[in-house]
Amino acid sequence: MIMEGNGRITCRVTGRVQMVMYRDFSQRKARKLGLRGFVKNESDGSVTVVAEGSRALLERYVVYLQSGSILSRVDTVEVQWGEATHEFRDFKIQY
């Protein structure tokens, strides 16, 4: 687990999180926090989120992911912490 500096989270979000503007919501919140990475829908109905930034901002972001967009219903957010790879220039929606 990363204790300070830049880190990376890989999240699997389940619930009613597709076709409810969840990816757009996730992207807007990430950009507002200055995070980099991506969000994408998975074939099993879940959403994957990968984000890099400071630990404090990533922790705030996870709270946003748990609350979800106004139309979504988030059941679980599984979070794996790791070290930042610095491979992202922005936060994008992947299709």
Describe the structure.
This protein is α+β, with helices and mostly antiparallel strands. It has a single domain, classed as Alpha-Beta Plaits, CATH 3.30.70.100. Helices cover 26% and strands 42% of the residues. It contains two helices and five strands; from the N terminus they run E-H-E-E-H-E-E. It has a five-stranded mixed beta sheet with strand order 4-1-3-2-5, covered by helices on one side. The mean pLDDT is 95.
Average pLDDT, all residues: 95
Number of domains: 1
What gross morphology would you assign? globular
- What distance lies between the first and last C-alpha atoms, to the nearest angstrom? 29 Å
Q: Name the CATH class.
A: Alpha Beta
Number of strands: 5
Overall SS class: alpha+beta
Beta-strand content bin = 35-45%
Topology-level CATH name:
Alpha-Beta Plaits
* Main sheet: strands, sense, barrel: 5 strands, mixed
Number of helical segments with 4 or more residues: 2
